[in-house]
Amino acid sequence: MKTQFKAITGSVVAPQGFMASGVFCDIKKLGTGKGSNKGQKRDLALIVSETPATVAGMFTTNQVCAAPVKVCVERVQKSQARVVVVNSGNANACTGKQGMADAREMVSFTERALNFPAGSALVGSTGRIGVTLPMDNVRAGIIEAAVELGATQVHADNAVEAIMTSDTRPKQVAIEFKLGGKTVRIGGMCKGAGMIQPGMSATGARPAALPHGGLHATMLGFITTDAAIDRKVLQQAMQQAVAQSFNRITVDGDMSTNDTVLVLANGLAGNRKFGTKCPEFKVFQAALKHVCLDLAKQIVRDGEGVHRVVTVRVKGAKTVQDADAAARAVANSALVKTSWHGGDPNWGRIIDAVGYSAAKVVEEKIDIGYSALNGKKILWSLKRGQPTKVTFQQLCAAVVPKEFELHINLNLGQADAVMYAADLTEEYVDFNKGDVADPSSLGG
Amino acid sequence: MKTQFKAITGSVVAPQGFMASGVFCDIKKLGTGKGSNKGQKRDLALIVSETPATVAGMFTTNQVCAAPVKVCVERVQKSQARVVVVNSGNANACTGKQGMADAREMVSFTERALNFPAGSALVGSTGRIGVTLPMDNVRAGIIEAAVELGATQVHADNAVEAIMTSDTRPKQVAIEFKLGGKTVRIGGMCKGAGMIQPGMSATGARPAALPHGGLHATMLGFITTDAAIDRKVLQQAMQQAVAQSFNRITVDGDMSTNDTVLVLANGLAGNRKFGTKCPEFKVFQAALKHVCLDLAKQIVRDGEGVHRVVTVRVKGAKTVQDADAAARAVANSALVKTSWHGGDPNWGRIIDAVGYSAAKVVEEKIDIGYSALNGKKILWSLKRGQPTKVTFQQLCAAVVPKEFELHINLNLGQADAVMYAADLTEEYVDFNKGDVADPSSLGG
User: Fold this and answer.
1) A203 catalytic residue (yes or no)
2) pTM for this predicted structure
3) Phi-psi region of A137 (alpha: psi -120 to 50; beta: other; left: phi over 0)
4) Torsions phi, psi of A16, nearest 5?
5) Of A394, B191, B250, B356, which sits most exposed with the smallest number of CB within 10 A?
6) Residue B437 pLDDT > 70
7) So what's the ipTM on this one?
8) Which residues of chain B have a CB within 8 Å of the CB of A64?
9) Residue B112: which residues within 8 A CB-CB, separation 6 or more?
10) Farthest-apart Cα atoms in chain B, separation
11) Domains of chain A and any CATH numbers
12) Where are the alpha helices (H) located in B168-278, listed in sequence order?
């Protein structure tokens, strides 16, 4: 279905009726001067819809959850939205009552600055944990960002720069496709590089079905579309899309306090609304998944210190939970991740991780193999628990590329799961040793 | 109770009636010559009791489990033992039917070499995964080791050298104490440095009570005692001791296919046997735990690339499972472990890990603090989810020592748990990138 989605420019302002901006307001209070941008990255963004938009969201299931997440969880469930205000440099997490007051002030100040009705703003934060926001700077930033709003690629670029923390690259995408005869667009931007193994749900509450291992970044994702769609339908499309994308990635296995994905749909494409049983739903859901998966993979590729990205495909599990548990155990094993870094096709560590995972497995049934990214030909290193005749040199060649796929067949059932995983490198460790001159230097 | 255990020399040959040996028989087939030891470490050990000994064992709960583990699980449940034969260089894991035949040949050949009855030998292996044992070398090694048996410290030193893989130091201990008026001794040796988060049970089967996260080393431990004790009583003392020691450590969160702890009790101390309700049981159990915990901590301190060892103490959990889950989430978080390496008292990462753990937690109730090793004074960085007035400099000073304690109080209940954890360093990554000239170079 991929081919029907045409890649376009414009990121979050590609869909009709959206504007964005990104400014520097010195949220880290580095003292480089209010409103100035002397070598500092922008740190406050606005994404605005000209008309009221239907919203849906997915939020971290971490029980320690930041104030902006709490505010969004309340708001997405009851109303439409016009604007999202996002800052980097401070996560507004573990900031107690003052943090909640500040998050509420961010949305209400944004609403007043844009002359929008109460309840029409959403908020996201990423950065240090445990430090309260410098609200004077935030308010000045919101006013400046409101003035700078626009719908060009430069506006989108400024907005995405403003949400980056340890990211080395901006992460954006936009597509165009036909829906019921109308041209619909979806745009998106996101941030995230470390503390990445999102496990998001619609309310931030843990669904019983989610495996323990699956409850683990700060990642923030903001998606815009001009599709006309009802909230419940949008939420369902979003849940499926996030389950198949952001919730399938891991850099370091750590789930953040701030993970948030929001989608705003303003209906300006003029398509006829559709239910979840309509053929249009399938198309829209696939398009939304396409955007989310593209963004999710950009996060893994830009993960802290990451050299290699491995798609871990588990099939033949008895249950989806088993498939997920086996894939996550492999994707998060320190020994497997270091062997990927070393270009070592070490199946011993892989079968070891599969064996200690919560998945039911039988050693004598396990197949392990490699393919090129999206490749059809699998080079099997292990069949039914036993090494094959494939030479070690062949296996080494299979794990040289910057991206490859690892295939594990448990041969016990019909369930499968995929994880998009990063290797573990010296650079990751060096980066995250922390800047001890800076308390809680890296956070949610 | 610690003070009543007197540290003595002798390791596994400290108790009456035990002998040991360690030889080089070129199990990696490096071709340095059969029986020679030209710069190569010894790779085959025997531990022998002069008289039949009661045995108990604990084994990896990894579903992918090595042939020697399978042989031991069968044997410890029905009989006494006289000898343990152990090799390094080859884990005899994922070796199929040939591996099982080789493990059985190792025990039966050892029995014949020592003129012991069938069923009186146990076996352990550690090293490469997926390569069959060079049985000619193994047989030659067993014969040589049988000739070299003796009861001096040198004999014990040779035996412990023969079970080392990535270990940089031998790990041994022995104690002496009074039991019912008699002098009893317990000696022990072990190996392990990476693939370390043991989760062992008596049968290798997973007890329902063990948390998923807890099912994760190759570590091998061999304990000898001259106490007189019945098998069931010994097994119960062993289960408690392992639950409080080897099953509480993590280097990298990976559980091996070969984890094994065996204890042999030959009764030569002449104490009166005791039941689990007798006061002597408490003393014996405490002594066995003392030996196991000493060995377990030696493993963490010698963990691959480890700079710092942190005792993670969680209290105030609703259930023991919750306490365990929170402690393991923190102890295995890549972000927390790298911050320990960096000397960064980053409570944001700690509360983040507690929040995504399977434990029930409430952000506003969480306390986080530091103390010196075994120190009573706790420096709190967080109280009830909020930063305290303790300065960042004070906190930094608390995490400078090579060993310190991290205290987490969930303030929800009465259950507690402890984990002995390692930091994550560039050296760990560099070491485990793997030697791509050597298939499955590091294994079980």
Assistant:
1) no
2) 0.91
3) alpha
4) -60, 140
5) A394
6) no
7) 0.89
8) 351-352, 354-356, 361, 363, 366, 385
9) none
10) 70
11) 2-301 (3.60.70.12), 309-424 (3.10.20.340)
12) 231-243
